[in-house]
Write a structure and sequence with these properties.
441 residues, alpha/beta, Aspartate Aminotransferase, domain 1, Aspartate Aminotransferase, domain 2, seven-stranded mixed β-sheet, four-stranded mixed β-sheet, 13 helices
């Protein structure tokens, strides 16, 4: 006879049994008590955010910030855009498939058809679309893995100050030594190349790379892939010139290496065009998209693959959450609402000019400062990490949320939603100007 053991109920939690720290009633107490020390953004903004709309964030007390961070570039269309929100609410209310792995779903079909019609076909692109795991680093891992599979080579080439993600393969092509923890986890088979302008404006690094690739005794083995950002997001907003990008693309083609463009942060209109490489007129073999591709901040990542390189065997690379139906719905709504005509890109370019005017003026007031970036992925390199930190804190105190980037966090970085109204954009820029003036003094 099966005997079911009797379970004794735990004793009630009295004040004597509750940990002393749990009695802390600060709104942020539970985060300090339970969330990992790895958290970062929240350390400079000690508030509990509770609502957001467009380019504005609000906390539980009603305090408000203009958002020039945009979810680190995952909210190009702002918070809770009504067109995207309503499409998602209707889909959920209709019991739409939330998670489909890689099964066929109506939501995925509709997204692929919109991507094909609105983005790929007008640009003469015939990429296959691989849905990877939910974050950008998952798509980078897939790109590196596929390049090695296709070429039979094990090494890859990446650039100084690059950032491609925090998983091991992505870290191997990331420049930041703190992120890589190189002393603890050796990451090999990567050749580090000098990005455009790394040695100053008078040195064409693409010529140096060409020499290394052409010389069999240079010590730089021909790579399976060259992975590059047209604008380096975390690396300090360095923007590659059109000529330099074209030369890198030609070097990859000539030496049988696949060209991977990481458009995780710079894509989906952030630099003006839908893809950051469009102005250069190049056609990468592989393109990585994430962050704002869902349009709503939902987890979604894509690898765009030239058809001749789509050589995966079924299931050879996968991820449980590659079938996010909710992201398919908002991504389709974003493409159809914003990208069906050239009007949105023109509006982004106009807003970018407004931001650039203010930044140019501010840079003139700071010795050694320069404006960097492209489109609405711009900032001021103030050359002094302490000054950049003071500007960032001053902005927070004035109700403006932004971040710093660069090798030493010396660049004050602006990434407002692409939909930020002109008056709000101007207000945010005024707050930045006031914080900068105070920081300089």
């Amino acid at each position: 006879m099966l005997t079911i053991p009797t379970r004794t109920a735990p004793p009630p939690r009295t004040p004597d049994t509750v940990p002393a720290e749990a009695s802390d009633r600060r709104p942020t107490a539970v985060f300090d008590r339970r969330e990992s020390a790895v958290r970062s953004y929240c350390r400079s903004l000690d508030a509990v955010l509770s609502s957001a709309s467009g380019s504005l964030l609000r906390d539980e007390s009603g305090a408000e910030w203009i958002d020039f961070l945009a979810g680190a570039g995952s909210l190009n269309y702002g918070h809770n855009h009504p067109v995207l929100r309503d499409a998602l609410v209707d889909y959920i209310a209709g019991d739409g498939v939330a998670q489909g792995l890689d099964l066929h779903t109506a939501a995925k079909r509709d997204f692929l058809e919109s991507l094909e019609l609105i983005v790929l076909a007008p640009r003469g692109l015939d990429y296959r679309v691989q849905f990877t795991g939910p974050t950008g680093t998952n798509a980078v891992e897939a790109a590196l893995k596929l390049a090695r599979l296709v070429t039979g080579r094990s090494g890859v080439a990446a650039f100084t100050n690059a950032f491609h993600g925090a998983s091991l393969g992505s870290l191997s092509v990331t420049g930041n030594s703190t992120m890589r923890m190189a002393d603890l986890q050796p990451l090999s088979r990567v050749s580090r190349l000098a990005y455009d302008g790394y040695f100053g404006p008078d040195v064409d690094t693409s010529a140096l790379i060409e020499k290394e690739f052409d010389d069999p005794s240079s010590g730089v083995d021909l790579p399976a892939a060259i992975i590059v950002e047209a604008v380096q997001g975390e690396g300090g907003l360095s923007a590659a010139s059109i000529g330099w990008l074209r030369r890198i693309a030609e070097l990859a083609r000539r030496h049988g290496s696949l060209l991977i463009v990481d458009d995780i942060q710079a894509g989906c209109g952030r630099t003006g065009d839908f893809f950051s490489f469009e102005q250069a007129g190049i056609r990468p073999d592989l393109v990585v998209l994430s962050k704002s591709i869902s349009g709503f901040g939902l987890p979604m990542s894509l690898l765009l693959i030239s058809p001749e390189y789509d050589q995966w065997r079924p299931g050879q690379h996968n991820g449980t959450f590659r079938g996010n139906g909710h992201a398919f719905v908002t991504a389709r709504a974003a493409l159809e609402h914003f990208w069906s005509t050239p009007a949105f890109a023109l509006d982004v370019a106009r807003r970018a000019r407004l931001a650039r005017e203010t930044l140019d003026d501010l840079a003139d007031r700071i010795p050694g400062a320069q404006v960097k970036g492209r489109g609405l992925m711009v900032g001021i390199d103030v050359a002094d990490p302490e000054l950049a930190a003071r500007i960032r804190v001053g902005c927070l105190h004035r109700g403006l949320l932004l971040e710093t980037c660069g090798p030493r966090d010396e660049v004050v970085k602006l990434m407002p939603p692409l939909t930020t109204p002109d008056e709000l954009l101007a207000d945010g820029l005024r707050r930045l100007e006031a914080a900068t003036e105070r920081a300089i003094r």
